[in-house]
Design a protein that fits this description.
This protein is an alpha+beta fold. The chain contains 19 helices and 21 strands.
Length: about 550
Amino acid sequence: MEAEVIVVGAGLSGLVAATEIADGGGRVLLLEREGEQDLGAQAWWSFGGLFLVDSPEQRRLGIRDSLELARQDWLGSASFEEPDGSDDHWPRRWAEAYLQFAAGEKREWLRSMGHRLFPVVGWAERGDGRAEGHGNSVPRFHLTWGTGPGLVEPFARRLAAHREAGRIALRTRHAVEDLLVEEGRVVGVRGSVLADDDSPRGAGSTREVVGDFEERAAAVLLATGGIGGNEELVRSLWPEELGTMPEGFVHGVPASVDGSGMLAAERAGARWIHRDRMWHYTEGIRNWDPVWRGHGIRILPGPSSLWIDACGHRLPAPAYPGFDTTGTLRHLRTTGHDHSWFVLTRKIIEKEFALSGSEQNPDLTGKDWKQVLGRVRPGAPGPVQAFLDRGEDFLQARDVEGLVDQMNALVGEDLIDARALERTIRARDAEVGNRFSKDAQITALRGARGYLGDRLIRTASPHRLLDPSAGPLIAVRLHVLLRKTLGGLETDLGGRVQREGVPGGGSLPGLYAAGEASGFGGGGIHGHNALEGTFLGGCLFSGRQAGQGILADLR
């Protein structure tokens, strides 16, 4: 097959773009550095959360959402630069287009391919406490029934049909290293053919080179992901506003997420903007059963756990579990230590702890309603219990003194004073016995219980942490989990990559980008901060837009 389009990367955005182009009659060569077992890339490992606005699922739960409210939340979080002629010109336009998509055809487009949603809508990134500031005013986190694999499956199925029909050729173990540029136009790619490797999905594969290749086409689309697995690159671009990058951290993505596509595009003359805008989680734990190097899992916390820094001081408002990821990270980087702690009870962990990722949620991933119903019964979910039993970051004790002894022993330093921590806990507990409170976290906890979805499966009933019937006490050590870059290759609404150093901008002919490589659209659709559930949706939307942009240019 003589391809008209080369798509580099078979993650979610690459699959969407390739199948969109093939649906429009284009012939596509899809190149992937890993094996076929890695189709879907990080989307497959994900929890499958999607940002939707005013959905039937929201309305059934009594959630009143609107495009106007979602726009207020997005812009309050993004804090785009002014004026519109700045580097945020295209990110701002992408944000508005994506909001229209999320409030419009997104749900039905997915549904037409067999995609389904879990009926309870989650409330992620509850905000910084300001109506006009960061955060979701209402629950918008729509969980894919089947988690990440359930989101990848419709596009993998479309890929298989197009391969059978000869419209898409997939070549795995092809590592693109450079773009071919002639007379100012990208005309193809070159790179190395890697040795076959049947390592499990996500595990590190061999980089043994067994050949090289060069391919040409009218259009090249980069869907190669971000930089989160490349520690050195993350460190070199770490934002100044977040202080110093931690020395100790865990990885939320494999080492293969190394920014190679973005670097190759930059060498070819592409414009990479907002390099220092990043999204890293503060609730990472070491995976007791790792798949990749330094494998970390993110806790998806409910609002009840007491969050303290490495020295036992309670974090300031609104640095509560699940409220403001970047704001909390900014504060923690001022403490002089790389870790922090959740202090909670058995009652809280049973009701509130969920672990991000398809492999940590076998009931939802396997679409097993019988197992899902177990979440409302007493006892911790199986994956959470496995971390309680085997995770190095999980500690249990009957009293504060015993818990603090273990916490200090785990870090090898007497950082926390047991009496001081107990005073903090008792002060917090004193606020629980009354329906009035000056403690903003207790107020937020009671507010969460007013939402049916939280009351059913995400928020424990308010109780004293030192109540013996709710125990034992639990401490969970938390690490920074490296994850995503929010900046990327600057693109217009057709996915066309913009040129570096050209007055007034303009695209680099022949080159397109989608997914995290494009900052999920435009070079940074989220601005400075994200609302959660927006990353997979950004891959879907940017892949679709780039595919349609390429078809328009080819025809």
